[in-house]
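Same chain as my last thread, 421 residues:
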Amino acid sequence: MEIGAFIKLQRIKHEMTQEELARGIVSMSYLSKIENEKTVASPEVISLLCTRLGIEVDSDKDITIKEKCQNWYDSLFEVNDKQEIIAAYEELEELISLVRSDSLAMFEIHKVRYYLVLGEYDKALEQINKLNDMSALFDNLHQFYWFKFKGNYNSLNGDFNNAMRFYKLAEEKISQIHLPEVEAADLNYTISVTHSKLKNTLEAIDYAKKAINIFQKEYNFIRCAQCHIVLGISYRRIRMFDRTLENLNLAMQLGTLNNNQAIIQLVNQNLGYLHSTKGEPRKAIHYFEEVIADNTVKLDERLLTTTYLIKEYYKVGMVDKTKEVIGKALSLLKQAEYSVFHELFYYIIHTFKFAVNKEYKKFERLVSEKFIPYLKDRKDYSNLVIYSKMLGEHYERQKRYEDSVKYYKMASKTYEQVVNL
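reply #2:
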């Protein structure tokens, strides 16, 4: 990182204005030129600016910092103890605040990833905003991670279109930098997952295959399992059920061999989806029950699976079990107050709660006035098909045929949009 950009980044970190840093050393306009690489300052001026920032030049310490940074970066991409990640971060934060290091920009960019790993999304956004003004000075390697982590932030907040935009910008940088193959594979996998979220099925398959080819060479079996799950989801969507089962079974084998419970339960979840799609609700129920019985499964995933279990019990007319699972879902919902998917889960759970309790007025108002507009606003076409059809069926049973036709038409038109995506 060039010295001007380094000084600017350190000044921002120390929450100093240009006036405060420049006072008695250089003019504000000259400092601005230094920071924006429009002039080369003398070593004496650089030394004075670094001294005011409390930074020393020590090449030996910088070598140590680089090694520690790389270890910390690696820890952010594997399942590691969060306390160890935090301890390593705090050590590096202290070191980098005292020594001029070429690792500063990369460290600051990886802070975005760090906050996302900790689930501190507000801090991640704050860090993104802090670095926005600096980003024009990033080199191609810095930009690769900058775009990738901005994509991660948008993805975790459910904005998959913006996530894809940033991931594609990161992908464009790969040909301009020297990057380990496994890093390229990780981006391919991430793009594959995002295409899957956007229902771009063929693209999801293409990128998952690119990623798995590299992960197999690296003997990274957990990442291979994750790719097989994406492939399983994609083949289910185009109703190639044999290939779905083949990929999910491979993922299950890899998860079992590595004793990875997260992989095992993700496979169970998708086996539930598979049997639901095939019209085999009782088999679907078996796999969904496996997932929600496991307290190690992440809260969002347990809630999502619980909503699918509600649908399956409701579908086969098991009223008491439907009510029982709705009770469990409401309890989980209280724990997920800050989830970005809280509103979606709320609408799904209460839609079935009102339907199964025959609170028809509440059901109609919730679905027509709140849930369907919510789904339209977010372009969630898959759920829009499901719940507009559900409302149409309800009105048909009530012999309100005009209303019934309205929502059946909505479901049909929305389905055409899903097919054409």
